[in-house]
Known about the structure:
By secondary structure, the chain is α/β, with parallel strands linked by helices. The chain has one domain (about 5-140): 3-Layer(aba) Sandwich (Rossmann fold), CATH 3.40.50. Helices cover about 25% and strands about 25% of the residues. The chain is built from 4 helices and 7 strands; from the N terminus they run βαβαββααβββ. It has helices spanning about 15-25, 45-55, 90-95, 95-100; strands at about 5-10, 30-35, 70, 75-80, 105-110, 125-130, 135-140. It has a 7-stranded mixed β-sheet, covered by helices on one side. The protein is globular and about 40 Å long.
Amino acid sequence: MAIEPAYYRSLRTEMTEEIGERLGRCLRPGDVVALFGDVGAGKTAFIRGIARGMGISKPVTSPTYTIVNEYDGPVPLFHFDMYRLRSAQEVFDIGWEDYLGRGGVCAVEWSSNILPALENGYIRVDIKSGFEDPDMREITITY
């Protein structure tokens, strides 16, 4: 199944996860999903959905302080949080290329901090919040 560019409106966290789950069902080994959005936009909720769509049942939490969480499944998921990184070189220092070569999916929060490391292509997920309804999100998937 191909991943088509799409626009969604999510009205609650569960919907954000469901949209992520749909994407997760389409992902293949070697895919990189780069997430963009402000603090509290729903990036981790979206990745929880991706994990579920990939057949991963382990609870997904933000790797803010560990930089990366690994989840085993039919295809492994490597969940990165680049918030504390300030350059692409820092991601290479933690073994980015090794993760890319391990046959899993890399889901990256705060991708804007490491854009040069994503030069080989990625699926882009923009999540916007801050509307009158605090639970509403606009999610755009492109690549």
